[in-house]
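Consider this today:
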Amino acid sequence: MKFTVITIFPQLIEDYFKAGILSRAKKRKQIQLKTINPRRFTKDHHQTVDDFPYGGGAGLVMKVEPIVKAIRLAAPRRARSGKAKQRIILLDPRGKRFTQKEARRLAKYDELVFVSGRYEGIDERVKHYVDEKISVGDFVLMGGELAALSIIEAVARLLPGVLHHPDSTRDESFSEGATLEYPQYTRPGVFEGRRVPKVLLSGNHKKVREWRKRHSRG
């Protein structure tokens, strides 16, 4: 799968792919990453991508033209081919709430393009050039980069071969409805008087499954 992020801070995205599972998946060519900086589509010396909002108010708004040109670079044949395996996503607090179910849906595409805003937001007309708007929660960030990375990681780990064990995504939190994963323990069996539940040491797989089901939170 290919991930493309439109952002004025490409290094924030690129650095995240330099460690851990995403780094390994990128080296194995299981995933690809591309960043596009809207500043390259500006015409002034300062590469200005923002301006004061019409109607007044605090802060600055990202301009529509550089963003749209970046989207068209990310999807050059989109208008002609109607490419169904690519999804253009605007990170927006008014968008659809991101969940594990949404991650599974997005994992079916070949490419995801993320439009990441800054300042007070993006010119509303950009929404006409994207497929959907997604929000990662009811809170305020300084930009859409962290939201994009959260979605990328949630989607990437669902792709075949990205995680070491094929069952890693099956029993984890949110895999079945709204259930949260059961408590996990590892060695030592006793730490400062706190013991691992005996059933997990019993070797009785049926009882372990029952215990885990009972202690999962719905």
